[in-house]
Amino acid sequence: MSVLVAVLVAVLQGVTELFPVSSLGHAVILPAILGLGIDQKAPEFLPFLVVLHLGTAAALLLYFWRDWLGLAVGLFARPSAERDASRHILGLVIIATVPAAALGFLFEHKLKNLFGVPVIAAGFLFANGFLLFLGERLRRRTGDQGQGDLSVLSWKGALAIGFWQCTAFFPGISRSGATMVGGLLSGLSHRASAHFSFLIATPVILGAAVLEVPKLLHQAAAPGMASLSAIGGVAAGVTAYLSIAFLMHYFRKHEFEALDPFAYYCWAAGAGSLLFLLLA
Fold this sequence. Notes:
about 75% helix
């Protein structure tokens, strides 16, 4: 993989990781369609993607540093309403992280068989459009217009969001999209759903990096891959930060059916990619 290709994949990942359109699905599909010459089944490919996600995690920490500082301070602060609110949110983040950590540990090897298969990723990307579209409709159908902030989220709601997050083990299903849908169905507003989705992304991404980055550093068959990954991680982090800023502004301005445009994109991109890959 050349430096240019690594940066292109990194920018793609940084842009799509927080958007509800599946960065992993794009990272698998586009190289196959564009003929970038990436061996997606190579043992170092998944760790390379994880390093890009590590850049995204750095962007999340930087953008939401006040949140994480408040959560940390809340552990040691004197009793107050603010401390209780911080501890409540921290507890919700931990609860929502448990399902993905547990299922990822149990089924890691089986799920890896799906990575690097563009046709499968394209099919799941198309399905992701239905997830987003139906999530908006189910939210209205239950009579819950989803106007709440994180203070109204219960531990049951956080656990449900955690299980929604597990659907992203399939390339093409968006982690952020699934958790946003889970947030909407738990009574949160679009902005609060996005906020919580971004908060719980950080420990999941860092956990994956702990498992995969050492494998990348010891890939003797891929000289230079560690340095390419570092360059890609920086590029992914910068673009991810810009994506977060855009999305937080977007969800503040668009509360009604805000996920619909992303659903339309997933249908078009998924169907188009699937057709191209099957006919090529």
